[in-house]
Amino acid sequence: MxxxxxxxxxxxxxADVRAKDGDGWLYSDIVKDHFFNPRNFMRYDExxxxxxxxxxxxxxxxxxxxxxxxxxxxxxxxxxxxxxxxTFGCGSAIASTSVMSEMIKEKxxxxxxxxxxxxxxxxxxxxxxLPVRKVHCSVLGDKALQAAINDYFRKTKQYDxxxxxxxxxxxxxxxxxxxxxxxxxxxGAQTIEDVxxxxxxxxxxxxxxxxxxxxxRFYWEKYFG
Length: 225
Fold this sequence. Notes:
By secondary structure, the chain is of the alpha+beta class. The protein folds into two domains: 28-158, Sufe protein. Chain: A, CATH 3.90.1010.10; 169-224, BFD-like [2Fe-2S]-binding domain (Arc Repressor Mutant, subunit A). The chain has nine helices and five strands; from the N terminus they run ααβββααααββααα. The strands form two sheets. A three-stranded antiparallel beta sheet has the order 1-2-3. Strands 4-5 form a two-stranded antiparallel ribbon. It is globular. The model is unreliable at 1-19 (pLDDT under 50).
């Protein structure tokens, strides 16, 4: 019944959250639709069966919203042929990830170059807008996509294509950033050896070892006390 009623309504219409009839909703009906009917969500029965070749993780449950995005990328065409995601957070974060997953799969899948041009404002427009204090959720979606594509570039040794804007580069050759170290710690890395298994950082650049160990300590204390 919910889906049918949504199709017959203006999806960009905002209900009055103070409505006395109990039907108030602070967000657009597009946000509501994606929250209650998320697209491309990674179901638990799919885990291990969805053979992705790129993964991006941003945020942390310890301090708020967290998004994880898995991509299937065709190496020949560089099109994103499929994707799945999981988001820990509010309705805005879930809806932002859901609508973004639709965007990158449209028309047979976006090419990587095109996907990297998606901005938070593009996601907001597709959602019919978000409250000002929830705009950061669309930013997280944009960052999760960039992180997943960077992961693909790293796995395919296309280091020159890795995007490092807004991050401190720790290893210039591999373009490993402080954000990459942070994500490794969030995934359980406690020592430089743990981080190197995942990122290879510092192996060819021994002089960066001290900076890496400092970051590991900083992020471990930040998230795990």
